[in-house]
UniProtKB/TrEMBL annotation:
Belongs to the enoyl-CoA hydratase/isomerase family. CDD domains: crotonase-like. The keyword Lipid metabolism applies. The lineage of its organism: Bacteria, Bacillati, Actinomycetota, Actinomycetes, Micrococcales. This is enoyl-CoA hydratase. The keyword Glycoprotein does not apply. Its EC number is 4.2.1.17. It comes from the Bacteria.
Amino acid sequence: MDAPTMLQVIRHGEGGHVVELSLDRPGSMNAISTAFSEEITATTAALGADPSVRAVVVTSTHDRAFCVGADLKERNGFTDAQMMDHRLVSRLAYRGVLDLPVPAVAAVEGYALGGGMEIALSCDLVVAGERATLGLPEVGVGVIPGGGGTQLLTRRVGWSRAASMIFTARRLTAAEARDLGVVDELVPAGDARDRALQIATGIAANSPVAVRNAKKAMRLGQGTDLAAGLEIEDGCWRATAFSRDRAEGVAAFVEKRTPAWPGT
């Protein structure tokens, strides 16, 4: 018998260009187990290889939690060897979200703690309902954020703000997270999914070649000096400017019509 799925994949809109990944392990508030990590890795790899996908929205089927982080019940009693095996698997899951070649939008309602917040940080944009709670509490249980939290949070909000959150293990209200820059947009409770899908739909209306290359330029240029970043941008510009999408975009503008993007 096949193992039960813990991740729903829903396509939205004409052409199914917007894909919703809905975390669906409600009995554990979407705690990330080894099997769940493997499913996230496989699903994001498949989406990344699918040229029809233009934007991804990460949601939860649980109204009280986006994701509460690592499955500590599973980890309890792990040998050192089992812990290392699990570590390799879980890293691939977070990287699967981070390395999506198309924009990803997290829709956070309820708790987004530890690895749950790191899934959100691995997305390009974070929308949160006003009753959401976010935090990286790992140091309180004897570990550190290991799904990219120490790096992604620092890049989002700066050293001192990230240090304050991580060192104290404190939880943020949605309003505090928005004010610190952890959350990009705050909406009424229950509206995060709809708003994230709206954003993703707007993204999907643009040239898929241009959007993918814009994300590539931004991600590869992050952390480099300006001169190196501009060279990366130039390479991505060239890859876009000589594409069929560019030709279609210019023609549609001149003819005053909606582009029919080739996507190549």
